[in-house]
Amino acid sequence: MLLTCRLLNCLIVTATVATFARCSADKKAQTSQPSAPAFKLVPAPTRYFNSFVDCNMAEAWVGDTFRIFPGKYGEDPLWGNARDLKFADGVNAEKAFSSPKEAFTEPVMPKNVPVGQPGLHGAVWFETIYQLPADKSGRTLYAVYHNENYPATLPYDPATGQGYKNERWPQGLTGPTTPAAVCRIGIMRSTDGGRHWENRGLFLEDLQPRLILKPQNTSKTFAGGVGDPSAVASGDYLYLFYGEYSYPGTYNAATYDADKERSGQCISVARIRLADLDQPQGKARRWDGKGFNAPYNGVGAPIAALQIPPSAGGGPASSPAAGYHWGPSVSWNTYLNSWVMLMAKATGPSWAGSSIHIAFNTHADLGEALNAQDWTKPQLLLNRPGYFLWYPSLQPMNTPDDVANKHTCLRLGKRARLYAKHIRPEKSEYLSSHIIEFTK
Signal peptide position in this chain (predicted)? Predict the structure, then answer.
């Protein structure tokens, strides 16, 4: 999160001509992997977004209105309180995405509570909207949000184990004296189409013992935690794909093992019953390598197919030289009958990385056996040296099929717009300059 602060610490990379992925997989390289559909990127007129985006684009159809919820809201001791989480409407996705800045409306959000009181602490970004199917008006929405805190906003409480100790805390994004954030994931609910929101509680979090501190954590990213999520419904559950940034066990500087840290990180998956979204606290379960058995604040296991091995440059998230995938965006593709995941790739400090990758999962039911783990090896989709590419997603267009089927970033067809945050030291933009087209 925090586009501006990440940008200040990003490595300046040389600008060269953009390179693009080959569109079909090498069958020999995938002998132990599920087969992946073919795809191609088609250059298209560039579309620029006119408001603040630094997360996945949360969106839903409210009746016949396509509504998007970009932005950031809440307290942040590093950058000040934010009021950028707003919504905009359109008769289709392209109209909503082209809304002028003045057309965005600020919803009524729950207030941050004082330190030491239960409630909302820190800043939030909406990442996914789940829409209650039973409400035919489309007005009952659940927002899965990314939340960031610091020892100043969420100090450690020994009675509950919640919060963070300001001891050997890793460096933040604006200099040696600033703190890194800890991310966690929660749920809010709206019953009026997103004009008013109430906080329902946490989906997932990592506690103090798993945070990675000095001297090992030098990446200028997070002290640990879970964040940058994308959530999809399958069966009776909401499945959350998210970035895991903590140590897979109790962190101890004296016994720290970099390879152990790497083994427990990358993109992970957890789930919660749809019936529990109104009272989610403590009810989600993480994948632990055998099933969804680990508690919401316990140690899970990442999706092995999405991890980058050390031989290919993979490393722990606390290292400034790490290679790992993060920021998943997951959708069901009605043409392919497959889940599609886009992800960014970090290759340097402060989430530096110029490429977007894509993976597939052909199991409609993510709850059966190992289905939630059965992703193809990520393939390069787009590489733009000279930029950092964050928060890639596939978005519907204004085609009759997209409008008639009320497609969103969670459900798409044969063709879709590719959006991503494009970042350079002097400028950052959320834009699309390609259409992706799938073939069977």
Answer: 1-21
Residue labelled with tokens 């996705």: 93
Peptide bond into 155 cis (omega under 30): no
Please count the other Cβ atoms lying within 10 Å of the Cβ belonging to residue 52.
Answer: 19
Nearest to 182 by CA among 303, 316, 78, 295: 78
Tell me: the pLDDT tens digits for 375-408? 999 999 999 999 999 999 999 999 999 999 999 9
Mean pLDDT value across residues 306-317: 97
Give 174's pLDDT tier (boundaries 50, 70, 90). confident
Per-residue confidence (pLDDT) for residue 279, from 0 to 100: 98
13-17: long-range contacts, CB 8 A cutoff, minimum separation 24 = 13/352, 13/354, 13/385, 13/386, 13/387, 13/388, 14/385, 14/386, 15/385, 15/386, 15/387, 15/424, 16/385, 16/386
Domains of the chain: 3-439 (2.115.10.20)
Q: What per-residue confidence (pLDDT) applies to 2?
A: 46
**235: burial class by Cβ within 10 Å (0-12, 13-18, 19+)?**
middle
Q: Which tens digit of pLDDT belongs to each residue from 239-268?
A: 999 999 999 999 999 999 999 999 999 999
pTM metric for this prediction:
0.92
Residues 6+ apart with CB under 8 A from 28: none
Specify the residue for token string 């994931």: 185
Using a 10 angstrom Cβ sphere, with 0-12 exposed, 13-18 middle and 19 or more buried, the burial of residue 120 is: buried
- Pick left, alpha or beta for residue 367 (phi over 0 → left; psi -120 to 50 → alpha; otherwise beta): alpha
pLDDT digit string (tens) for 344-380?
999 999 999 999 999 999 999 999 999 999 999 999 9
Is 78 in contact with 182 (CB distance < 8 Å)?
Answer: no
Q: Which residue, among 187, 87, 90, has the nearest Cα to 132 in the 3D structure?
A: 187
- Largest Cα–Cα separation, the chain: 60
